[in-house]
Amino acid sequence: MNLVPHAAQAKENLNPDAHPAPALSAAQRSNLSPVTAWGYAWWRARSLALLGARGFTLEREAVLFTALCRPAAGQVWLDVGTSAGFYAGVLARAGARVTAADLSPAMLAVAARREPDPAISWVNLNVEASGLPDASFDGVTVGATLNETHDPARLLADLERLLRPGGQLWLMYLRRTAGPAQNLLARPALGGLTCPDPAWVARQLPGCVRTDGLGVGAVQFDRFVRSDRTL
Ligand SMILES: C[S@@+](CC[C@H](N)C(=O)[O-])C[C@H]1O[C@@H](n2cnc3c(N)ncnc32)[C@H](O)[C@@H]1O
């Protein structure tokens, strides 16, 4: 005999700590393919210029990031959706210790070959359901991974949680232009990409202050710092 009424039983079965992983977008699924991983570094080196940030090479992106965020020896950083390891490599060369996370084992294998630095730990992890401890990073880099998730608000909230007070969040993403290409790529079957507005992004990070924001073509770079007060 079941003594627990059905509705109450359903509530009892809810695990408040459970954090189910969200469904993957088509763009996220495409990155699981070894073929995508094989070609990704080639695309990444050209992608910003093709997306309207003319002349914006990876070297310039690294200089911009390093000048604004000043990653330093002894700091602990998380690179979210590392792909071929671009930000992880920049951080490791600055002396930081890096957790480089990606959903895709194929991407991680490519990245580990390209950036064989012992300061980088390659981790196969869905950062939207990471379970990583609060305030565990001095900095977080997110190079375009924000565009791939179904739920950018959830991702941003979790990244804010992972920053220690004073910690930095660096975002590079395609911002909303409402152009025809973005509208097409937003369709679930064609990628399910989300291109957020920078003001919307800032509103998802109530515990952070945006210190820098730069739009180049459709590409947006933002730096946030987590404020000292408790969230
Ligand atoms: C646009 S690429 C990132 C490029 C890379 N950050 C860079 O700056 O060169 C997106 C990457 O994020 C990964 N990714 C997407 N959603 C993720 C998630 N929720 N958790 C971890 N990795 C994710 C994908 O597998 C893919 O490798």
UniProtKB/TrEMBL annotation:
Keywords: Methyltransferase, Transferase. Coiled coil: none annotated. The keyword Lipid biosynthesis does not apply. The keyword Glycoprotein does not apply. Residues 78-170 form the Methyltransferase type domain. Signal peptide: none annotated. One of its GO terms (biological process) is methylation. GO terms for molecular function: S-adenosylmethionine-dependent methyltransferase activity. InterPro entries: Methyltransf_11 (IPR013216), Methyltransf_Superfamily (IPR050508), SAM-dependent_MTases_sf (IPR029063). This is Type 11 methyltransferase. It comes from Deinococcus grandis.
